[in-house]
Task: structure prediction
Amino acid sequence: MQDVKGADSLYYTMLNSNKRSITVNLKSPKGKAVIEELVRRSDIVIENFGPGVLDRQGFTWERFQELNPRIIYASIKGLVRGRTRIAKRMRTSRSAWAGRRARPAGRTARRR
Result:
């Protein structure tokens, strides 16, 4: 399959259809105010920043609870801390989400 020049890829379009997104500078007061307002008005926050990024910006679970006591917070990490470095793991996660890691009943996954 070849993408159309100047258009989003089919893969990107399939994964992101009906999603809305914004770009916010978490280090600026204006950006933090935007996030706080979104948390107050939202039901769910899903983020995939590296470990500790939101905490360092002051957006801890406790802060989200202050802003909206009903908020559901999901942190989906694409990074795993290893012995010597942080390894990107999104490829494995995407495969699992797509069902490629499914095993027939009674069979167990082999460790690599």
